[in-house]
Specification:
The chain has 354 residues and is α+β, with helices and mostly antiparallel strands. The protein folds into 3 domains: 26-150, Immunoglobulin-like (Sandwich); 184-219, no CATH class; 223-353, 3-Layer(aba) Sandwich (Rossmann fold), CATH 3.40.50.410. It is built from 7 helices and 20 strands. It has helices spanning 2-23, 78-84, 201-207, 234-253, 275-287, 296-305, 322-333; strands at residues 28-34, 38-39, 45-53, 59-69, 72-74, 85-87, 91-100, 105-114, 118-121, 125-130, 137-142, 147-150, 177-189, 211-219, 223-227, 258-262, 269-272, 312-317, 339-343, 350-353. The strands form 5 sheets. Strands 17-16-15-18-19-20 form a 6-stranded mixed sheet, covered by helices on one side. The protein is flat, with a radius of gyration of 31 Å. It starts with a helix and ends with a strand.
């Protein structure tokens, strides 16, 4: 009888071991996410992760390791880092030892920041599990491909844009006039050519026939931010991107629509305004590399030929040679206001081209 019980226990353990080897790795699910996909250097990003046991058997011990490159900085306290951080050759890993009951879930979070501008993919994930008898272990790897963009740093300096000839949207002598639908100065009869959105139903009811609004005319600013990446040294290029971000944020603050153009690998962003528009610009700044695809002169020629009306310009550039100054003169001739030039390789960055 004892022998039968012993054999039965051994068979059960063998079958249980085989089942655990076959089923445990398949029952693990992992995912993680961040609370933002666009940050600036030093801004705290929260990485949230979730590991789940979808099986009906417990996992007594699992090791979770999340790899990070050395451009990432952990923003947790020293005690947490001593407990969970292990250094490596090209970065470090955050390690967690945990157990999961059947259908159990473990959630955690890590606060990090990025040290410099760029486009990054957060590291690979490794999960180690073992069988119930401790005979063998298996390592699963996941590549969540979590992408983060770190834009240029914030500009600590401040500049006064108020003296630049209406560049920030004030009405100037040379202005581009558009009908402003928000300013109604009167009403007239409907002629059949006006769009229906111009119909004033309140006035129509009073008059007994269709009446349309008559709108006032106001000045509409059209500004393009140009970033010249020709002959820019790496450190000056980074400073130029910081200045470009500053200009765009100033325009956003003043509610002035703007386009964002470059002769490098900064993507062209059409005229717009608002959080989504600024985010597109900041992402473009974050992913930019040192490449320059055309000369500054060609960039100016493109602006002149495709401007579609009056436009003012803010130029971020390294110091220009004779050819570049000639191109700048052409830009002045076709600018609706003074060209605001920010030199990225000088202590005093700004001048106005008269």
């Amino acid at each position: 009888m004892f022998a039968v019980i012993f054999i039965g226990v051994v068979v059960f353990l063998v079958l249980f071991e085989i089942f655990s080897i076959l089923r445990l790795p398949r029952s693990i699910r992992f995912r993680y996410e961040t609370d933002m996909d666009l940050a600036e250097p030093g801004e705290i990003i929260t990485v949230k992760f979730r590991i789940a046991n979808t099986g009906s058997l417990p996992i007594f011990l699992a090791g979770l390791s999340i790899q990070f490159d050395d451009v990432v900085k952990i923003e947790e306290d020293e005690e947490w880092c001593r407990k969970h951080i292990e250094s490596g050759f090209s970065g470090f890993s955050a390690r967690f030892n945990l157990s999961l009951p059947p259908h159990g879930v473990y959630c955690g979070k890590i606060r990090i920041s990025l040290k410099k501008r760029g486009y990054y993919e957060l590291g690979r994930v490794y999960i180690e599990t073992g069988d119930y008898l401790g005979i063998r272990s298996e390592v699963l790897s996941y590549d969540p491909a979590l992408k983060l963009t770190c834009t240029a740093d914030f500009c600590d300096d401040e500049y006064d844009f108020s003296d630049f000839g209406g560049l920030m949207g004030d009405i100037s002598v040379r202005r581009f006039i558009h009908e402003d639908p928000t300013l109604t100065v009167g009403f007239r009869e409907y002629t059949g050519h006006e769009p229906m959105k111009m119909v004033s139903w309140k006035q129509t009811a009073k008059a007994g026939h269709l009446m349309v609004r008559v709108n006032d005319f106001t000045a509409d600013s059209d500004i393009a931010v140009l970033v010249n990446m020709e002959d820019a040294k790496p450190k000056y290029k980074e400073k130029g991107l910081v200045l470009a971000r500053y200009v765009c944020e100033q325009l956003e603050e003043r509610k002035v629509p703007y386009a964002f153009l470059s002769n490098g690998d900064l993507f062209e962003v059409r005229k717009g305004l608002g959080k989504a528009h600024l985010k597109t610009v900041l992402r473009s700044i974050g992913v930019a590399r040192p490449a320059c695809y055309r000369s500054f002169s060609e960039l100016v020629d493109s602006c002149v030929s495709h401007r579609g009306g009056k436009r003012s310009y803010v130029l971020v550039t390294p110091r220009l040679d004779d050819e570049g100054m000639a191109a700048l003169d052409r830009l002045r001739m076709h600018s609706d206001a003074d060209v605001c030039v920010l030199y990225e390789d000088e202590e005093e960055y700004m001048e106005v081209a008269q």
